[in-house]
Amino acid sequence: MKFQIVDAFTRQTFGGNPAGVVLLPEGADFPADETMRKTAAELRYSETAFIRPLGGNRFHIRYFTPAAEVELCGHATIGSFHALQEMGLVAEGGTYIDETLSGTLEVVVGKDAILMDMAKPQTFQRLETPEELEELYHIMGLSADGQGAVTGKPELTLLPQKVSTGLTDIMMPVADEAELEKIAPDFPALTEHSRRYNVVGVHAFTVNTTDGMIHARNFAPLYDIDEEAATGTSNGALVYYLYRHGLVELDKVYTVVQGEKMGRPSMISAQVILKDSQPFVKVGGPAVTLVRGEIEL
């Protein structure tokens, strides 16, 4: 099987978020789940995508962390279609279908970026009691007061909330970039917290920045990912969360900066659009290949 290691959400190798991409031979079915999980563990990246071509413009992609299968992974999808383009299986300007456990998604291969639909956005439980807030912010190494008020809207205080555009994370606002930088999670406690709330992890962010962009950090130790440099699904959920709070406009493309603390700065583009009068989210960015090879199974 052909494979690549692709850095997504960057144009420079060793930037962005790396993902494994494995292309199954034409007509082949997926290997056993445990084989795909072990392959992901062997490649040692947060997610590895396994691509099964279905013919025409359709692909079935499954996503594995070193610990388990997940329904969708944004950066591994961007990496997958970058790899497919390099292999000559998709072309610039084309629109393709990605069949995932999270649903059927549309992917556009653009000149400067690959853009993908997120799954239908959904909001769930808010964490709003003093006990819930104190527990979460304490686990993340902060005070609950660190959530702060949004610049320009001092009357609006954002609260953590479970949000999904394919995978469910807790969106966790912090006051500013300094608070974001200070986050130092208790990973065993965060693992248990994520399991109890039935989420992949915590996506901490601030809109109170000096450069006008959104800055974020993502933590998912339940899936053996202490911190991730770029997360398409999480940032899709974040932009939808901010849209619900009146802080993001329809059709405008926003940039989320992630991975700075890890030395792998990533630039993720995200926008909220209307489809049949309902809000949907697109997330994307460029990618670059680091490694090409063959996997013998």
Automatic annotation (TrEMBL):
One of its GO terms (molecular function) is isomerase activity. Keywords: Isomerase. InterPro entries: Phenazine_PhzF-like (IPR003719). One of its GO terms (cellular component) is cytoplasm. The keyword Isomerase applies. The keyword Isomerase applies. The active site is at 47. It comes from the Bacteria. PANTHER family: BIOSYNTHESIS PROTEIN, PUTATIVE-RELATED, PHENAZINE BIOSYNTHESIS PROTEIN. Belongs to the PhzF family. This is Phenazine biosynthesis protein PhzF. It comes from Vescimonas coprocola.
